[in-house]
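Task 17 of the worksheet. Students: predict the tertiary structure of the chain below and write it out as structure tokens. Keep your answer in the requested format; marks are given for formatting as well as content.
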Amino acid sequence: MCKTLVTSLFLLLTFTAFSQSTLQVKKDTVIVKKAEFAIENKTRDTLGFLYNTGNGRTQFKRLELVNLDDTALAIVGQDTITYKSANIGKSLQFKVGGAGASNAGDTSYTNAGLRYANIKVWRNGLFQYRDTTDGIMVDSVNGRIRFYPALAQADRIYIESLFGISLNFQLSAGIPTVVVRDTSITLPNSGLQLSGLITPNGNTISSYQWSQLTGPNTSTITNAATQTCTITGLISGTYTFRLTVTTAGGQQVSDDATVQVYPAGGPKILRINFSNTQAPAVPGWFNVYRPVTNNHITATDPTTGWTIDNGGATGTYWTAFGGSNGNDDSGQITGDDSGIVPDQVLKSFWFNYSTKYTTTDNLLVTGLNAAKTYTLKLVGSRKTGVSDARYGVWRINGGAELQQNALGNTAVQTVVTGAAPDATGKIGIAVYASLNTTYGDFSYINALIIEEEQ
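Model answer:
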């Protein structure tokens, strides 16, 4: 009797246990009801997940998180989580014209650390409101601040950024970047082209749209739905134009360009980029090219009427290294046009090897107004990867030797104000190896900007 009772109790418990969970197998589907489904193998101590690889197969994958900059995490192969912590902020300050800071005449300041932040700006102790006449405009997507009016020498800038709590899910492709460079023209030339420098970052660009934000009149925009537009009907004054880019996924990114239109006889600006062979056109830049060795090069800008002259064809002016004085792709670039000048300008240059300065200028700017003075901005850039010193070394009108470290340079320019042409309208620049051997045997020049002072 006792044995029968025990047997009956065991069967009852077994039935009860199985009645609490149901395992069904239908074709290729496994269904577990009211129970935990566990798979154990040698990976049981490794955090991971089951991943549907397609064709009805499931694969175990190890969980792997990747840091993206300092504001995002990604599960490899999956989406990206962009995150911000509460009440975490940063501040920075600089003096215009100081080492590594913005320069007088710059209209914008960009810092990747300001992206997606709530940004406040003080200029010389005064809080800057959003205003395109006397204040700032902020592009928080790209971390860019635009200043109205342009920065002046010795301006003191204080920037404060605050990050609030936010979670933004986005595809791993990221956000495209758009850069439109500021430029200027002088009447009677009343038309120009603006082109957007686009980095898709894995996205497909579905549309472009140009629009005018501000200006003394309403201009005419041709090809407004393309990457490069033509703008006509401009009059003297300051304009702001915007390029908005839309991706196939519906993301929109934009950038603004300031266009300064000077009256006939007003202040002129010439931006020159040097190269060994003709470089791709960069809006707002005048390309002076050809091998410097054994060539007397003269090039006249059709807008300003100013002429660039390399001095002459003999070795008195330029000494070659390996038979060349120019290069088209050995300058340092940023990869996203965030440098002091566009990447296309940074990547090419003229250079002089070993010859030291005596009294001979080998880069002449002629056709200037002898009654005016000029601001000169010079940039030298050379890729890293060489062991010896590489500098831009220059003299303006026979003045003191100026040195700029060209190795890896994308952010520094040398500014000279008050440069006066001679009675014929000529400013002489000397591009020679430094008299001080500390600065090496080369002198580079990638870009020269000449601004007529009022």
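Marker's comment: Residues 392 and 443 are 5 Å apart (CA to CA). The first helix runs from residue 2 to 19.
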